Each structure stands twice: as C-alpha cells, then as structure tokens.
Amino acid sequence: MNTLPQLALTFLGLLFCAGDVAALGFLLTWQERASSPAGRRQRLVRGVLPAATLLLSLLLLALTQLMLLWSQQ
C-alpha cells in the first residue's frame, strides 16, 4: 500500500542526486577553464571548495534520507 509514495520519493531523490553530481561536474569544468594557473587557484579557493562542500553535504543528506525511507519496512 505504501510503496507508491516511497517509489516516487526514491525517484525524486535519485534525480536530485544525479543533478547534484552534474552540478559538481560543471563546477570542476568551470574551474579548469580559467585562463591562468592563478585564476584556476582563485576559482578553486573562492568558488569550487565552498560550493563542492555544500553540494556534497546535500548529496550525503539525500542518500541518508533515502536509506531511512526504505529502512522502515
């Protein structure tokens, strides 16, 4: 009875995780496109590291929520 909402939430969670991984890929590509090594380092420190920390935290939270969703059965 309760599997349809779980499946829908699982699909949305996996879609969120895929988008998160895509955003991480975009972030790393953006960092590598800087014109100089100094520019790449500046983008790494000021943009990539804080954003990657946030995105990885959200990814871990989403996976934890998915595991908790299915562990109740």
The percent range for helix content is: over 70%
Mean pLDDT: 93
Proportion of beta-strand residues: under 5%
Rg from Cα: 17 Å
Following the backbone from N to C, one meets helices and strands in this order, namely HH
Question: Count the helices. How many?
Answer: 2
Structural class: mainly alpha
The count of DSSP E runs of length 2 or more, i.e. the number of strands, is: 0
Tell me the overall shape.
Answer: elongated
Largest sheet: none
Euclidean distance between termini CA atoms: 12 Å
The stretches of 5 or more residues where confidence is low (pLDDT under 50) are none
Summarize the structure.
This protein is mostly helical and 73 residues long.
Task: Explain how this protein is built.
The chain crosses the membrane at residues 47-70. Keywords: Membrane, Transmembrane, Transmembrane helix. 89% of the residues lie in helices and 0% in strands. With 73 residues, the protein is mainly alpha-helical. Helix 1 (3-32) packs antiparallel against helix 2 (37-71). The termini are close together.
Keywords:
73 residues
Helices and strands, with pairings:
Layout: H1 3-32, H2 37-71
Helix pairs in contact: 1-2
Keywords: Membrane, Transmembrane, Transmembrane helix
Transmembrane segments: 47-70
